[in-house]
Design brief:
Keywords: Coiled coil. By secondary structure, this protein is mainly α. The chain has a domain of 110 residues. The chain has four helices and no strands.
Length: 192
Amino acid sequence: YNKKVRQLGSQTSDLAETIRYRLLAEKAIALFPDKNPKDYVAARMAAAGAAAAAGKKRKRSTTVNEEEEEGASAEETAPPLRRRRTRSTNEAPAKTPPTADADADELRRQLAGQRNVVLALREALGRSGRDAEAYRREAEAQRQEIEAHRREVEAHRVEVEAQRCQTERLRREVARLQAEDGQCARSRPYYW
């Protein structure tokens, strides 16, 4: 019977630990999508283990101090019950340790805040991506416009070259005609 109870307890704690690991892994994926979630889970579990160990040490030291104080009060002449009452009224009320629900709520609030930050960053990245796409489209339109201007300049250059060739041809024709006309032409014009 004892073995079964231990086994059930072990299974329950294993299930709780598995759930804890899975929640931490999901949080790690949400916060750091490009990193390995196992690293984050291992760091968080190590931090939780260190905090739990520190809490146990603190609890042990306060228990020892209380036992010493009780021993000292028993040695004094005042009645122990009265002494304890005065001591309890003079001491500040002990703070209750945070419950697991409060810890879970705090973690949920932190996770929600971190999700909001991640969403804001994703939105900013999307906005910058859209801006980059608009700049790319604008650059493409300007490139096409420059290409059209270049084609116009090339067409104009071809046209100017054709006109230059035609002018050269006409100049040669005029020179030829003047040469032919010069052989039989009069030096003075005719006057009627």
